[in-house]
Amino acid sequence: MIRESRPGQTGFSCRGSPVQEHRMPSRYLEIHPKDPQPRLIRQAVALIREGGIVVYPTDSCYALGCHIGDKDAMERISRIRQTDKHHHFTLVCRDLSEIAHYARVNNQQYRTLKAFTPGPYTFILSATRQTPKRLQNPRRRTIGIRVPDHPVPLALLSDLGEPLMSSTLLLPGDELPMTDAREIQERLYHSVDAVIDGGNCGLEPTSVIDLEGPAPVVARRGKGDVSVFE
After folding, report:
1. What is the pLDDT of residues 1-50, one digit of tens each?
2. Which of 44, 45, 166, 184 has its Cα between 20 and 30 A from that of 155?
3. Phi (first) and psi of residue 48, to 5 degrees
4. 3-state secondary structure of 166
């Protein structure tokens, strides 16, 4: 189902954070979390291809996503989250074969990826030459990559045919990611192009595992079990 939110929102969030922009009202797409409707998936993907930002559910928490090559959309996400130029986006892929196009993966790393994807993990890997420099860590030339275990983002990725640039939906002043799609719509009414309601997500972001050293390093503890890496 598609619903347009009510007009009349201000340029500030309900908690006072100036996260809104003067844009057309975002679309509200109710997509089944286990059996996504292809028609609605196609509509969300069309917005992404047109340079839009879409809020979507994952197996950890809600996230902001945009087209991998869209610098303007990435900058909009940075303004929404009020992050600096050092903020690291995550490249969300549909499978291991897609990861290999953007990250250099040795045999040991591949075994780790195979064991823990799809799932609530982000892995830090060396970027390939095909990866735009603005997506990489400027010092290490690495990139965070993940494969979600959730039907909605997997359907988006399948229809899109390429990865999404993504960032956790954690707004300025909030201690935890947002989990209710209707509240997200209220606060980001003019800031994003669509909000996908896939039901409540969790409050924990992904666990981040750095695979670039001789042994994996837990860079952030999140939803994914990290005991095997410690």
Report:
1. 544 443 333 344 444 443 555 467 899 999 999 999 999 999 999 999 99
2. 184
3. -65, -45
4. strand
Q: Is 141 left (phi over 0), alpha (psi -120 to 50) or beta?
A: left
**pTM more than 0.90:** no
Q: Which of 117, 87, 104, 75 is nearest to 224 (CA)?
A: 117
Query: What pLDDT does 6 receive?
Result: 36
Residues in the chain: 230
E strand spans, 105-154: 121-127, 142-146
List Cβ<8 Å contacts ≥24 apart for 95-100.
95/147, 96/147, 98/162, 98/163, 99/125, 99/145, 99/147
95 token code pair: 């499978």
> Confidence class of residue 78 from pLDDT cuts 50, 70 and 90?
very high
CA 78/CA 40 separation, integer angstroms: 26
